[in-house]
Design brief:
The chain is 66% helix and 0% strand. It has 131 residues and is mainly alpha-helical. It is found in: Nucleus.
Length: 131
């Protein structure tokens, strides 16, 4: 293990794109974490990088990315909503809606006691294409 640590510490910046110092701060923000092994830090960084790469590639291939030759927030939020693997990200990547529609939803919630986004789904897609 010592040799692996020494080998990694010299080349880890080239093997991982994400900043290890930031990942260390995020890991230490958890109350259960008291110390972080350098190998664990590196592996967490690499796993995170590969996950983000997979999310982006999947979203590009299954969204409108190919048509527009771009990856959009809408592609990412659609993936979080539709793909079971990424559904845990739905709160972090919600579908974008116009502020006016959100205010209407809040008003309706006050009246009905429930929020429903589905009613305006067709309109949302039109709005996105205009923007």
């Amino acid at each position: 293990a010592e040799m692996a640590t020494a080998r990694l510490s010299g080349t880890e910046n080239r093997l991982v794109s994400l900043p290890l110092s930031r990942i260390r701060v995020i890991m230490k923000s958890s109350p259960e974490v008291s110390s972080i092994n350098q190998d664990a830090l590196f592996l967490t960084a690499k796993a995170t990088e590969l996950f983000v790469q997979y999310l982006a590639t999947y979203s590009y291939k299954h969204g409108r990315g190919k048509e527009k030759n771009a990856l959009t927030y809408t592609d990412l939020s659609h993936t979080a909503e539709e793909c079971e693997t990424f559904q845990f990200l739905a709160d972090i990547l919600p579908k974008k809606i116009l502020a006016s529609k959100y205010l209407k939803m809040l008003e309706k919630e006050k009246r009905d006691g429930e929020v429903r986004e589905d009613d305006d789904e067709a309109e949302e897609e039109e709005d996105e294409e205009e923007a």
